[in-house]
Amino acid sequence: MKQRVPRMNDQESAAWLGLTATLQLLPAALDRQLQRDSGLTHFEFVVLSRLQLSPEPTMRMTALAEATVATLPRLSHVCGRLEKRGLIERSPCPEDRRATNVRLTSEGRRELIHSVPGHIATVRRLVIDALTPEQLDALAEIMGTINTRLASEPTDP
């Protein structure tokens, strides 16, 4: 039996359509800037950033996939591209032969550091500078609420 779901009112619809438009437009804009300035996609930038911020010099692929909210196949494909460019290195995990470790190379660190100023400038131009301090506080609160709910969703289909 199909469950009946109430229709969205005008306020709910406007909020939802605004969010979905942002979810489409913002990643594309971030990709354009990063590709133009450093040849990275936004997801590659996120992968390199997570490795840079890791307290250990290496991360297991499974931990990196969780940190970047990616599937292992997607992450493996992206890591293959980053490895070919010399930005990361992958190696078998000594503690678990089934696992793979990933490490940011010196070249990867340099590329990430080079790409950060342009990325921050783009984020400021497109998002941060468009909002008042009160709106930024509201956005942070809203995103925290949504992300908490998303994190608690079951991952099984």
Automatic annotation (TrEMBL):
Transmembrane segments: none annotated. PROSITE patterns: HTH_MARR_2. Pfam families: MarR. Gene3D superfamilies: Winged helix-like DNA-binding domain superfamily/Winged helix DNA-binding domain. Residues 1-148 form the HTH marR-type domain. InterPro entries: HTH_MarR-typ, MarR/SlyA-like, WH-like_DNA-bd_sf, WH_DNA-bd_sf. This is MarR family winged helix-turn-helix transcriptional regulator.
